[in-house]
Amino acid sequence: MLGGIADDFTGATDLATNLVTRGFRTTVTLGVPDGDLDDLRDHDAVVVALKSRTAPVAEAVADSRAALSVLRDLGADRIYDKYCSTFDSTPEGNIGPVADALMSELGVDTTVVVPSFPDNGRTVYQGHLFVGDRLLSDSSMRHHPLTPMRESDVVRLLAPQTTRPVGLVPHAVVRAGADAVRTELATRSGLQVIDAVDTTDLSVVAAATSHLPLVTGGSGLALGMQGPSDAAGARTVAVHRGFRAVLAGSASRTTQAQIAHARPHLTHLMLDAERLVDDRDDVLGQILDCATASWNRDPERPVMIYSVGEPADVATTTRSGHSSAALIEAALAELAVRFVDAGVRQLVVAGGETSGAVLRGLGAGRLRIGPQIAPGVAWAETRSGSIALDVALKSGNFGTTDMFTSAWDVLA
Description:
By secondary structure, the protein is α/β, with parallel strands linked by helices. 35% of the residues lie in helices and 23% in strands.
C-alpha cells in the first residue's frame, strides 16, 4: 500500500486523482481515521487529508505524525508527503518541518522534493519553480493572502524550514535517466529538490525513487508511478442522481474565470459577506428558496453559489472587522447541508478551505476517488449520514474554464 499525507482536502483529492489514473484503487480519509479501518486494507493507496497547510508548525507536525502512524498500521510501506505544487508556505514552515518529522519517524536520511505538476503548468528548472511561463515570484501567488510566494528558488525557500541539507538534482541529471538520478541521490543526504519540466521527467524521477520509503512533492510525481490495478477499474464509482450545485469559495483568478464562463448557463447567486454578518439566516433562506425554484423548473440545471466573481469582489474583512473568508466558508458549509436535504446529489466545490468546511459540514469521512474531470480534479463518492453523494473538490487554481458546466458530463 502507498500512504499519502496531504496538507489540505483538495490537495488530497488532487493526489488521489493522479494515483487513480495510474491504476491505484484509492480512498481519501478526511482527517486521521480512527475506529474500524478494515474497509481501507484492500486499497492500493490511502490518502489522509489534513488541514495543516497554514496551521501552526507544531500542530501540522503532530497531525502528520498521527497520519503516518495510522498509515503504517494499515500496511503502507511507502509514504507520499503531498503539499501544494506552488510550494505554499511561510519561511517558518510547514513543508520543511513536516518532512523532517516524517524522515525522523521513518529513519531515512534522504528524500526528494518534487513540486512539479506540468499538466497544470507547474515546473521546476534549475531549482526555480515556474507557474506557466512565469516564475513563481512573478505569478499571482505573489499576492496570496496567507502564503505570499515572493521567491522562486525552491532550495532557498526550503532551506530556512529544515535542519537538514537541501540540495538540487539538476535537469541534466534527470535527462540522463533513472539510474543517473538514483546514483546521484545515493551520494547525498537531506532534502533533494529535483528538476522536472514534463511528464517524462516525472516518470524518470518516479523510477529513480521507487526504493525510497518517503517522497515529498506536489501530486505530479504520482503520474510517473505505476499502480497494481487496471486504471479503468480503479476509476469506477456509483453515479447518484439528483439536483446539482456548485459552491465556489475560492478567490483565485482561475475560479473567477470559471464563474464568468458559467454565469450565462447556470442559475447563480453571489454571497455577500457584509450581509452575512447581520442577516445570515435570511440570506441562506433566500438562496435556498431561489435554488429550489430553479431545480423545480429544470432539475438538470446546476445552481452556482460563489463569493468572488471578479477582482473587485475580493475583501479579507467586512466593515465590522469580521473575516470574510470565515463567514463565506461557514455559509457555504451550511448551504451544502441544506442543498443535500433538498435533493442535491452531485456537488462541485471550489477552494481548499471551502472544500474542508463543506465536507466537515456534511459529516463526510471518506472519499472513494472516481473519474477525472481535469488534471488534479476528479469526481468522488462519499456519504452525508445515510445519503450517498458524488462530489468534486478542486483547488482554486485547477480546472478548465468550462469546468462548472462540463464536469457533469463526466458522470453521464
